[in-house]
C-alpha cells in the first residue's frame, strides 16, 4: 500500500490485532490442554495415594493381630487374620476395578477432549484466515480508491 494512503496505518494495526488475537486464542487452547493433563495426572496420583493408604491400613491391622497372638489362642487369631485377609483382598479387587473403570473413562474423556480441541483449532484457523482475507480485500479496495483519488487529483 502506498505510503501516501491514509488507511495504511489503520490496516497495519488491524493486521497486528488479528495476529495477536490468533496467537492469544492458540495460547488459550494450549493452556486448557495443560490444565486437563494436570487433572488427569492428579487422578493417577490419587490412585497411588489410595493404594498406599489401603496398604498402610492392612499393615497396621496385621501388626495389631500379631500383638493379639501373644494374648489370645492361636486359632482365634488365625481366624481373624484369615477374615482380615479376605476383606482386604475384596477391597483390593474393588479398588482395582473401580480405578480401572475410572481411568478408562478418563482416557475416553481425554480422547474426546483432543477431538474437540482439534475441531476448535481448525475453526479458529478458518475464522482467522477468513478475517485476514476480508482485511486484505478491504485493504486492496482502499488502495484502489486511494490511487483513483490520486489520479483524479493529478488530472484536475
Automatic annotation (TrEMBL):
Q: Give residue spans, biased composition: Acidic residues.
A: 140-156
Region feature Disordered, mapped onto this chain = 134-156
**Top-level taxonomic group:** Archaea
Q: What is this protein called?
A: Phasin protein
Originating species: Haloplanus vescus
